[in-house]
Amino acid sequence: MENSNGLTASLLVAGHHAARLLESHLSATDLSAGEAVLLTALAPGPLTMSEVMSTLHIRASTATSMVSRLERAEYVYRSSNPEDRRSRLVHLTLSGRRQLEAVGPAFRAVDSLLVSRAGVGAVAGYKRVLEALAESE
């Protein structure tokens, strides 16, 4: 993918392509790519809204609307944080765990497709670029 603005612009465009590709594999669910990633992030346990924002690298308004949509669908619920009453925890519900099981095959299908098209070496190199990007924050 040639881009006159270099690597950064290409990474941003690639992220959008990855989201669209994942969403095509999520068509059996009612989830967006971002919502699927959020459910995956919640699998180990509840997160505060600040942790949702930092884990997904999204703004507060985006996190709030995403969690609200998942809450209306009964995939997550919010509770008071016993360690800090000013913050709220976001938890998966049983329905949310079922949705999480449904998104696993979509992630695996996209991963498999990308590895088959680009090769293991290219994917490993891309992961190193992403790690360097994460370290720059």
TrEMBL record:
Q: Which SUPFAM superfamilies match?
A: Winged helix' DNA-binding domain
**Out of the domains of life, which is the source?**
Bacteria
Q: For this UniProt record, give its keywords in alphabetical order, as a comma-separated list.
A: DNA-binding, Transcription, Transcription regulation
GO MF annotation list: DNA binding; DNA-binding transcription factor activity
Identify the SMART domains for this entry.
HTH_MARR (SM00347)
Family annotation (Pfam families): MarR (PF01047)
Q: Which GO terms describe its biological process?
A: response to stress
List residues of the HTH marR-type domain: 4-137
Q: What is this protein called?
A: MarR family transcriptional regulator
> What species is given as this protein's source?
Mumia zhuanghuii
Biological classification of the source: Bacteria, Bacillati, Actinomycetota, Actinomycetes, Propionibacteriales
